[in-house]
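Table 4 source record.
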Amino acid sequence: MENAAVQNAKNDRLPFPSPVCVRTGDNTKREVKSVHGACEVLIDWPHARRGPVYQSTMEVLQSAMAGKITSEKAYEAFVSFAKHADVLVA
């Protein structure tokens, strides 16, 4: 089994085509550059706001981390989620 450092290095190789800027819960801006970064945002997402769009986006991100889909598909799903949640910063 791989250690966390090796796994994180692999996740860093899943960059987004371009950064996605979102507003976080404390109303600060966060630049998300990879599938791993998008997963961090969703892990911190408030439980009360986790609905079907959240669930499907998390599934897409996990599929990308497992190598089943491209980081570009994960990027598209995360951007759609951010628009839906009204946290995308233009």
